[in-house]
Design brief:
The chain is an alpha+beta fold. It has 4 domains: about 100 residues, 3-layer Sandwich (Rieske Iron-sulfur Protein), CATH 2.102.10.10; about 90 residues, Zinc Finger, Delta Prime, domain 3 (Up-down Bundle); about 90 residues; about 240 residues, no CATH class. About 55% of the residues lie in helices and about 10% in strands. The strands form 2 sheets. A 6-stranded antiparallel beta sheet has the order 1-10-9-4-3-2, with no helix packed on it. It has a 4-stranded antiparallel beta sheet with strand order 5-6-7-8, with no helix packed on it. Helix 4 packs across helix 22, helix 8 packs antiparallel against helix 9 and helix 17 packs antiparallel against helix 18.
Length: about 575
């Protein structure tokens, strides 16, 4: 679009009192109205809601009503009196028997500002259609998709009451789509993050920010102070120091370690804390550090607000063991050496062993000099196997809290652990290996019986194409989907094509609840990245993460939880019972 004026004309005799006419000018539809009192007006003919013709609407008191959805617009300025968005209005004058309409689009910067404001309004009111239209308009005006992903995360950061929510990691993950979903097509992946944002933050006020406090001139001591404040849940004071650090211009190399160390202290928010940290910094990498002033204070608040599950009774044995081990993490970190350790025993223990044995298995591997990244390989393999073993009858049972989203966290958390260890390779970060081992081992209670587990080998009686896998997935036949992919890969199928297909599957509306779609995107991104790591390490299990996410995508998934919440309410209010969990 440009700010160059375009002229349109209409003979005065062709538009009588109380009439309207449709004009087409340079591919654009205009609705021209003459009221009973002779006044002339012109607006875009396409109703901004869904594009139906306003020229066929009814006019009363200088207001046109779109008959399709009863939206109403003032003809003199285009403002919306009922509905979502204003319609563009244009200058009209009449001279010498001719009606002249002058179309002048505002400068691009003004249009971008207008649609950004409309986008935020759509988010505030949970108007998903308006959000989609505004994203397309902004993309057409040249706004980069990654900046729109950042806009979504910033809205989350400014409005989420307890800090960063699921919105931001999904906004980071959808950036992986933009190499294929170009220009206006980027709206589809972007909408996955925007819909979660709109649904969870509807009419939430902006969260007040703590005023900046001078952080001093020693980033290490400031970081330690922030960790202490988080531990004591003094969130305002912690945020004030972070605000001061950002004001001082401190960059990622100084600030990211604070967040990672906070995640190494506790199993936070069922692993969400570490996932949010790694994804937020991924998004800052992609969209630019200028968003740090919005995203990082919100991230810090979320870390201080989340539940520390390692403090609940079921974790006390683990917390005691980890605290006892604490001073020894330095010596375990110093024993790392090159070479390939045999981790088959650790893998077996993670999958089927006792919880104490899984803890000791991590310690033994470190004492043998195994590099932490190789231990992460083992954790990823075990987490993938756990997804393949998951008993979907548990997910369907409204009396049980655990389900598909529970079991996927082993893989996505292990992936976040890999990222964290590579970004901050220091002794305290080794505790993340123990957290991952704990959750992967604990979810063995969600496994199918051995005789009912899936086969991962080819089946010549089935199809060999991704289209065949599409059909099996749509029909909810995970065993068939896994066998078809095995056939396809055996015949030389390309992993990159499989990745594109799997990522796009998450956009296909097979799943409908935004939060569940976000988890599928997150798990898919982690699975294919971990496949690459395992392949580079020469692992015979390199395909396991991909097979795991395919099994997830092809399985029936319970998205609504009203029955479970109702069951829990009855048990609690009537019988005083706590919710039932298997882990």
């Amino acid at each position: 679009m440009s700010d160059k004026a375009t002229q349109a004309q209409l003979a005065s005799d062709d538009l009588g009192p109380g009439e309207s006419r449709l004009l087409r000018v340079d591919g654009r539809r205009l609705a021209v109205f003459r009221l009973e009192d002779g006044r002339l007006f012109a607006v875009d003919d396409a109703c901004p809601h869904e594009g139906y013709p306003l020229s066929q609407g009814t006019v009363k008191d200088c207001v046109v009503t779109c008959p399709w959805h009863n939206f109403k617009f003032r003809l003199d300025d285009g403002s919306c009196l009922k509905g979502d968005e204003a319609v563009a209005s244009h200058l009209v004058h009449e001279k010498s028997g001719t009606i002249h309409i002058e179309l002048v689009d505002p400068p691009v910067e003004e249009q971008i500002a207008r649609y950004r404001a409309s986008l935020h309004e759509g988010l505030r009111e949970n108007r998903v259609g308006q959000i989609a239209r505004d994203i397309v308009r902004l993309l057409r005006l040249g706004v980069e998709p990654v900046q729109l992903a950042a806009l979504c995360a910033v809205h989350d950061a400014r409005h989420a009451r307890y800090g960063t929510s699921h919105v931001t990691p999904v906004a980071a993950d959808v950036c992986s789509y933009f190499d294929r979903h170009r220009e206006e097509a980027a709206v589809l992946p972007l909408m996955q993050a925007f819909e979660i944002c709109a649904q969870t933050l509807v009419r939430m006020p902006m969260r007040p920010l703590a005023p900046a406090e001078d952080p001093g001139d020693n980033p290490d001591s400031t970081g330690k102070r922030i960790l202490e404040l988080l531990e004591d849940e003094e969130l305002e004071a912690a945020e004030a120091l972070l605000q001061g650090a950002l004001t001082m211009g401190w960059q990622r190399d100084l600030l990211e370690p604070w967040f990672l160390r906070a995640c190494a202290r506790h199993w936070i928010g069922f692993g969400h804390g570490l996932i949010y940290v790694t994804k937020t910094f991924d998004l800052l990498d992609a969209a630019g550090w200028q968003h740090a002033n919005d995203l990082l204070p919100s991230l810090l608040r979320s870390l201080g607000s989340m539940t520390r599950e390692d403090q609940v009774p079921e974790w006390l044995w683990f917390r005691r063991r980890l605290d006892e081990l604490g001073p020894g993490l330095t010596s375990l970190h110093s024993t790392q050496k090159q070479g390939k350790a045999d981790l088959s025993e650790l893998l077996a223990t993670l999958l089927d062993g006792r919880r104490e044995a899984a803890f000791d298995g991590i310690t033994d591997a470190l004492r043998q000099g195994t590099q932490p990244q190789r231990i992460v390989d083992c954790l990823v393999i075990a987490a993938s196997e756990r997804i393949l073993r998951f008993d979907e009858q548990i997910d369907a049972d409204p009396t049980i809290q655990n389900g598909w989203l529970t079991v996927t966290h082993g893989l996505t958390y292990a992936h976040a652990v890999r990222c964290a260890l590579s970004r901050l390779p220091e002794p305290a970060m080794l505790s993340l290996l123990y957290f991952a081992a704990r959750i992967i081992n604990a979810t063995q209670r969600l496994d199918r019986p051995k005789e009912e587990r899936f086969r991962l080998h080819p089946d010549k009686s089935l199809g060999t194409s991704l289209e065949d896998c599409d059909q099996a997935t749509a029909a909810g036949r995970p065993q068939e989907a896994l066998s078809v992919v095995a056939n396809w890969l055996e015949q030389g199928g390309d992993i990159s094509a499989l990745r594109s297909w799997a990522l796009d599957l998450a956009l296909s509306d097979k799943l409908t609840r935004p939060l569940v779609v976000g988890h599928l995107i997150k798990t898919t991104c982690a699975a294919f990245t971990e496949h690459e790591h395992l392949q580079m390490a020469g692992s015979e299990h390199a395909l396991l993460p991909i097979q795991a996410v395919l099994r997830l995508a092809a399985s029936p998934i319970r998205e609504r939880h009203v029955a479970r919440l109702t069951h829990e309410a009855l048990r609690f209010v009537v019988a005083g019972k706590v919710p039932r969990s298997l882990i």
